[in-house]
Amino acid sequence: MAWSTRQLAELTGTTLRTVRHYHEVGLLEEPKRRANGYKQYGVAHLVRVLRIKRLTDLGLSLAEIAEMGDADEHPEAALRRLDTELAATIERLQRVRAELALILREAAPTDLPPEIAPAAARADLSDADRSYMVVLSRVLGPKGIQAYANLMTNYQHEPLMTEFDELSPEADEQTRQDLAERMLPHVRALRAEHPELRTADEDAPQGAKFAARTMGQAMVELYSPAQLDVLKRVGRVIAETPVEGD
């Protein structure tokens, strides 16, 4: 039995280019040629091409097939490795699908991890607050991220905080002081309700100091000097006149 390259490709469901590539990479032995110079393939070539095609369809690379050589023994080790890789891929894809379902269901932001994204979506955060949450999600550990997720789960955006969000960078001394005084009870109430925020950086992957420094840098970039001044005034009063919950 002798077939041309085109006939071999048709019989095996491949292409001329594929058969020639198998020759180039050393997977398929060159056949004998007729007197007119045309290649003539036999049954062994047919079986070899079908085996290569079957293994590539299963997911093995040509390099892995080459490592097996020409032997026709059952490639158990390679198939078991492939099975392990496929199991890990399936697990990753299932996790991605679960996250996609969460994002679609909750209209959650895609730049936040799933542990905090739904709560952030429901909290009606300002652009600056949301960007700050993105930074937090990168420097805090699971415990810290959960602490902020808890904070936002039942958070209602107070008109007072809208006033803070819209505070003019040129706000005068009296305006900033007045806003700080009115924000103080709200901030204290949040701190009392969520004491876990005080230790949110305990499990930060790169340490509490790195987390604090990064969060501080983010605040300087995201909030105006006037807003930062208001927060400093609130923090100063809490530090100087602590009450239960502080």
Automatic annotation (TrEMBL):
SUPFAM superfamilies in alphabetical order: Putative DNA-binding domain (SSF46955)
Q: Which residues form a coiled coil?
A: 79-106
Q: Which InterPro entries match?
A: DNA-bd_dom_put_sf, MerR-type_HTH_dom, MerR_fam
Keyword hit for GTP-binding = no
- Location of the HTH merR-type domain: 2-71
Which CDD domains is this protein grouped with? HTH_MerR-like
| Swiss-Prot/TrEMBL keywords | Coiled coil, DNA-binding
The reply on keyword Lyase is: no
User: By its UniProt entry, which PANTHER family does this protein fall under?
Assistant: HTH MERR-TYPE DOMAIN-CONTAINING PROTEIN, REDOX-CYCLING DRUG-SENSING TRANSCRIPTIONAL ACTIVATOR SOXR
Q: What is this protein called?
A: MerR family transcriptional regulator
